[in-house]
Specification:
The structure is a single chain. By secondary structure, the protein is α/β, with parallel strands linked by helices. The protein has three domains: 230 residues, Periplasmic binding protein-like II (D-Maltodextrin-Binding Protein, domain 2, 3-Layer(aba) Sandwich), CATH 3.40.190.10; 214 residues, Periplasmic binding protein-like II (D-Maltodextrin-Binding Protein, domain 2), CATH 3.40.190; 35 residues. The protein is built from 23 helices and 18 strands. The strands form four sheets. Strands 1, 4, 5, 6, 9, 10, 11, 12, 13, 14, 15 and 18 form a twelve-stranded mixed beta sheet that branches. A hairpin with a 2-residue loop joins β7 and β8.
Length: 508
């Protein structure tokens, strides 16, 4: 204990007291167990090869040796003088996570998507972030000091039941939905509309997502295409609000129309997919795929390795803006022996993975876009984007790609302009950081309440599965006739067998 006290005193002499008004915990044997549940393959697990080391122009080197959550354990002890052990687990879908919670699984920190965050908020199951978490004067509060102004605005201008998302959620990854396409088989004009999935020219060459929310969104884009692309509609002062309302239309009439359309599309698409679409695009099985931006980047990267080009487009009707965020669960935080310490560790975890170096590691490993932008004094993330997509010095044909809206909140900020190849206008850079103009036609798809969920899920079951009620009466009559014929033939065959057997017993 004397040795530990000496180490703690030395640390404080060098670094001062932590600025979050939380005391330094000196008893290393008093360990916090932090239960974290995240998407599969959604955090850097380390074990990088030496050739993967990233050397940026600002002098920063990025290298993943251990999993980030193990690095957090070391950082937390160095920073706060207390041991924390992360129990890290994964889920496959938002619905899987929700079912796990309802079955009694206990976590302190989870990372669902926006609609599940809204659902958990509405159900009162989330613990709000503390005021100290948003204190910009605390240098250890990496999230609030590094989150993109664009993401921060999205999180704090959207509400559910009168409460800001940002009160309960911290952004992790974000992106949009769009169309991943083969430019040799599909034109940009075709890929710039959700109608591509109804195009009979591409029969059995396109794929939709095997989940009701994404496919329903695409169906709305087709059903409402004329309205959504009308110039009067798009130039209205309240365009964003009107677009959001239209793309969240869950009236029974619209649900019925969407079902009819999706049933029609089932005859035109190659498949409903969750993860196979990327490989199907790279292999050439399909020429267009409904895709999340991060997975689109992965597919384009894979195709590049095979000297095969894929592109990404955001439909003109509108697209889905999504994000995954870290939320604390009341059941987990208050299940611990000391909820204050548990909450502090959970918030510290969010802060640690919001450091620019952590964000770069996660983007490199996951392929999705971090909500973290960095501070004015730290351009690590911008330099990483430039490292990924900036034009080579030898390239003469280049474009200026402004990213000020994301990094500083000022779209005209000259400090955040990427000099890129013109090809990046509809490829990886475009998918990861869509231009501000493109983002104006993106909206968040809200969560469905219980009544709407039942109607939507019933619709999806009808689309995905064989609905016995849809069988025409003539078909039923034909089936019944066949069954009666079979019964008749079986009866006659059995009757003849019995007569033959009786004839044999009588010595015939």
């Amino acid at each position: 204990m004397l040795v530990l006290a000496s180490v703690t005193a030395a640390y404080l002499a060098l670094h001062g007291m932590p600025q979050n008004n939380m005391k330094v915990f000196a008893k290393s044997e008093d360990e916090i167990v932090l239960r974290v549940c995240n998407w599969e393959e959604y955090i850097d697990t380390g074990d990088w090869d030496e050739e993967e080391r990233i050397a940026l122009d600002n002098g920063v080197e990025i290298f993943g040796e251990k999993p980030l959550y193990e690095d957090f354990e070391d950082w937390y002890f160095e920073t706060y003088g207390r041991r924390v052990r992360v129990e890290y687990s994964c889920f496959g879908t938002n619905e899987d996570l929700y079912n796990q919670l309802n079955l009694g699984d206990t976590y302190d920190l989870v990372c669902p998507s926006e609609y599940m965050i809204m659902k958990l908020m509405a159900e009162g199951r989330l613990e709000p972030y503390s005021d100290t978490f948003y204190d910009k004067n605390n240098e250890c509060n990496y999230y609030v000091n590094n989150v993109s102004p664009y993401i921060y605005n999205v999180m704090n201008t959207n509400e559910i039941n009168g409460e800001r998302w940002g009160k309960y959620a911290a952004g992790y990854m974000w992106g949009i939905t769009g169309v991943l396409y083969n430019p040799e088989q599909v034109s940009l004009e075709e890929a710039s509309s959700w109608k591509i999935f109804a195009d009979e020219r591409l029969k059995r060459q396109v794929a939709l997502k095997d989940n009701v929310r994404d496919s329903y969104f695409a169906a709305l884009g087709i059903l409402k295409a004329d309205l959504l692309t009308d110039e009067e509609f798009r130039s209205a002062p309240d365009y964003t609000k009107r677009l959001e309302d239209e793309m969240n239309d869950t009236s029974q009439e619209t649900i019925d129309e969407a079902q009819a359309l999706l049933e029609q599309l089932m005859g035109n698409i190659y498949s409903l997919e969750t993860d196979s679409g990327k490989a199907d695009m790279v292999s050439g099985k399909i020429v267009a795929d409904y895709q999340w931006s991060g997975d689109a980047v992965y597919a384009m990267d894979q195709a590049d390795e095979d000297d095969f080009e894929l592109c990404f487009s955001v439909p003109k009707e509108g697209a889905n803006l999504w994000f995954d965020g870290w939320v604390m669960l009341k059941d987990g935080i208050y299940d611990s022996a000391d909820s204050e310490k548990q909450k502090h560790a959970a918030e510290a975890f969010v802060n640690f993975i919001s450091r620019p170096e952590s964000a770069v590691r996660n983007m490199y490993y996951v392929g999705y876009t971090s909500s973290i932008a960095g501070t004015q004094g730290d351009d690590t993330i911008f330099e990483y984007i430039n490292w990924c997509y900036g034009a080579e010095d030898s390239e003469q044909d280049t474009i200026a790609y402004p990213l000020g809206y994301f990094f500083s909140g000022d779209s005209e900020d000259e400090r955040y302009v990427i000099t890129a190849s013109p090809k990046q206008v509809d490829r990886q850079l475009y998918a990861q950081y869509p231009p501000e103009e493109t983002l104006k036609r993106t909206v968040v798809m809200r969560y469905f309440n219980e009544e709407t969920s039942k109607a939507i899920n019933r619709m999806w079951i009808n689309v995905r599965c064989f609905d016995i009620r849809d069988v025409p009466a003539a078909i039923w009559l034909a089936v019944i006739a066949v069954l009666l014929l079979i019964v008749f033939l079986c009866y006659n065959t059995g009757n003849r067998y019995r007569k033959f057997a009786e004839y044999g017993r009588n010595g015939g």
